[in-house]
Amino acid sequence: MNTLCPFPMLSVILAATWLALAGFSPAHLGLALVLALTIPRAVAPLLGGLPGIRSVTGAIRLAGHVVWDILIANIIVARLVLGPVSRLRPAFVKVPVTVTHPSAISLFMSMISITPGSIPLALSPDARTMLVHVLDLEDEEAFIAKVKERYERPLMEILEC
Amino acid sequence: MLDLLVSVLLLVGSLFIVVGAFSLVRLPDFFMRLHGPTKSTTLGVGSLLLAAVIHTADGLTLHKLLIALFLFMTAPVSAFLLGQVGLRRRVTSRAPLPEDFPGSHQ
User: Fold this and answer.
1) Considering only CB atoms, which chain B residues are within 8 Å of A85?
2) Residue A156's Cα: distance from chain center in Å?
3) Is the pLDDT confidence value at B40 over 80?
4) Domain that includes residue B51, residue range
5) Quick check: A66 contacting B, CB < 8 Å?
6) Which domain holds residue A36?
């Protein structure tokens, strides 16, 4: 089981995505199975193991938080961009990273990136600090506390890592 | 009623995409301009896709949700890569560039 299908969840997602894109037919089902079995094995060395999910409800709640933050931040940033540009306070912020699993770090950075107003641009080689560019920074401490509390802490609770 | 909702979503989506594009012109430096595209891909494209899903509620709904999913997965990666190039080339920036950040100027 483990060698044939190292990441069952990834295989299921791949097969479902293929069928959703290509449409359901016996031939595509066969192709989806082939892809679901070969791709995870091919990328396994790159992934180095995926963390398990401890709490599905927690994951849904976090996704809801992110969608809500995207809505609010979009409106705030749209107003900033349309207002006087000279009043913006762009800054680079070093955010300490507590999660250690590569997938968790990647998710943490992605969530910061898709909520407008902040973009992670670099990760230190030891993966303990990331560099985030903020379009309009009011309070550095508050920004760091917010992303860690809102995105990283739920991640630590959801993922087994 | 549904048409009204679809229209509002189309308008809101278009508005945010225009604002995202407009910000490329308005914002003064490379790193600040990176913030424009993240806006249009999230709320802008999200609203347009939601309008499409509501307008054509059929078997193709999954397609549109997948478009959103792929955009959300790839946008952070492209923003990160662009940012890396900016940091390494030390492009002009209104925010002071970090001098001591490991990995940003190799």
Assistant:
1) 26-28
2) 13
3) no
4) 2-89
5) no
6) 8-47
Cα separation of A95 and A92, whole Å? 10
**pLDDT (mean) for B3-32:** 90
Q: CA A94 to CA A144: how far, in whole Å? A: 8
Is A1 domain-assigned? no
Q: What is the total count of domains within chain A?
A: 2
Note the pTM of the prediction, 2 decimals: 0.83
| Same domain as A85, residue A29 | no
ipTM over 0.85: no
User: Nearest residue on chain B to A110, judged by CA atoms?
Assistant: B76
First-to-last C-alpha distance (Å) of chain A: 22
Coil/strand/helix, residue A160: strand
Tell whether A109 lies on the interface with B, counting CB pairs under 8 A. Answer: yes
Flag if B95 and A133 touch (Cβ within 8 Å).
yes
Residue A62 lies in a domain: yes
For position A48, what pLDDT does the model report?
67
Per-residue pLDDT tens over the stretch B53-94: 888 776 566 777 788 888 888 888 888 999 888 888 888 888
Nearest CA in chain A to B32: A135
